[in-house]
Amino acid sequence: MLLGQTPPRVDLPFTIWTVDKINTAADYSTIQAAINAASSGDVIMVGPGTYAEQLTLKAGVRVIGTGVCTGETGSTARTYVFPTIAADGSAIVGPASGVTYLENIAARADGATGNNRRTLAVTTGTVKAKDCCFHSEGIAVAAGTLYTVLASGGNVVLRGCLVTQALPGSAILPGAIEIDNAASEVALDSCDVDGSVWAVEITGGLLTLLRSGKIGLINRTGGTITMNGDVKVTDILGINDTTTETNLTHDVYGVALTNGKNDLYKLNLRAITGDVSSPANGDLWYNNSTGKFRGRQGAVDFNLRDLRETGGPTELAVAAIADGQYLRRSGATIIGATPGGTGDVVGPASATDGAVALFDTTTGKLLKNGFVSHVRLELGVSSPSAVITTGAKGRKYCSITGTIIGWRLVADVSATVTLDLWKAAGAIPTNANSITASAKPALSAAELAASTTLTGWTTAVTAGDVFILEVEANNNAKYLALELWIKES
């Protein structure tokens, strides 16, 4: 461009709208006016201050606030939505269809006797919120319901959000998050959630717990709860499960609960008088009348300390056991026995992963197989202001020895992505050190993919190896995280 010429105009494929309560140069002074004017793909940048308005979101529109959300109270340094709700209603309502986005927004709704209030209510469509604070509070509320987030037909995805609820002097007992529709899902990724009674109440639909966050009591009377391997026992205060269904699952790095090395989880079992009516095989409950934990195996109910054998349960007594003794059965009693003798102790002729066998009384051989340990190795890349470009994007040192058995790829938005992995022993790898052959980790117009099909891969990993993640193709993502599942040897 020559000196004095007018620079060329750059037309963006979307419109950026501005909202500010003080700056008159902004496009609008209210958020809803900007939402009404926006089209799918547009971005609304909102200045700080308290916006006393109820919002109805629109599909494809991204609303981005100002400031850092660190609590439920208002601040002049951030965007705060706190409307006066006349009767039943919500501070923010999800879109009629499609997906909408919120970022750095703080919002609050207060309860009132006889009214049903929500801070964020999603009955259709999907709301994806990042780094937001949602709070609700009931002051001497004697009737009605008050939920901070309600998924009742729509879906909610919260990433890095704070969801709280306080009910001082209130007689109502809801949860901070309520899921009450079989068609709804709430996914929590690195969120802190707590309520005056329940952090989450699920009567239908799906609650998905992703990466770690602090979550209070979960009350489940229906629906399904799933967790991935990043959710630890200290992250959840407890789960009160009042159903007899087998809908509490835990996905550990893509393998079933019965395999691999799994973390333990607290489950607050329902204490009932008598036994569960019509229990299914595998059900577990606590019988208040007998003071015993009970379970169902096949068609037979038994106490947890029963020994299950073919033909029915045989309840064993346990004798006194001294330090240093091992356990063995003597008739109907578990006794302690002093180690000794000259019997051979050898391994099995063939091993089965995850299986543990016992002494064979005929040969006197100890048959034991080790448990399998799965470790996660994560490689990530992000570009906050633009789509991630192709090329080598990062290095990761591996401190374990084992075998790669699968991968999981996550993006911040729906994208089509192809990745490659380079690996070298104690050196910086190049493209010549690719280990993925033709079965490369990829997304096809999706945010999440996983696979244990590693055709052609070099799967052996040694402590001291260095990995580099190469982006071969990417049309949309600004954040990518690739997890490798490694079975330690």
Q: Keywords for this structure?
A:
flat; 48% strand; 1 helix; Jelly Rolls; Pectate Lyase C-like; mainly beta; 489 residues; 1% helix; seven-stranded antiparallel β-sheet
Question: What features would you describe in this structure?
Answer:
The model is unreliable at 244-272, 306-313, 344-348, 354-360 and 364-373 (pLDDT under 50). The chain has 489 residues and is mainly β. It contains one helix and 41 strands. The strands form seven sheets. The chain has a 17-stranded parallel sheet that branches. It folds into two domains: 16-269, 3 Solenoid (Pectate Lyase C-like), CATH 2.160.20; 374-488, Jelly Rolls.
- What's the CATH superfamily of the largest domain, by name? Single-stranded right-handed beta-helix, Pectin lyase-like
Strand content: over 45%
**Global morphology:** flat
Number of domains: 2
Q: Name the assembly state.
A: single chain
- Counting DSSP H or I runs of 4 or more residues, the number of helices is 1
Uncertain runs with pLDDT below 50, 5 residues or more? 244-272, 306-313, 344-348, 354-360, 364-373
Report the biggest beta sheet as strand number plus sense, adding barrel if it closes: 17 strands, parallel
Q: So, CATH architecture of the largest domain?
A: 3 Solenoid
Compute the CA-based radius of gyration: 28 Å
Counting DSSP E segments of at least 2 residues, the number of strands comes to 41
How much helix is in the residues?
A: under 10%
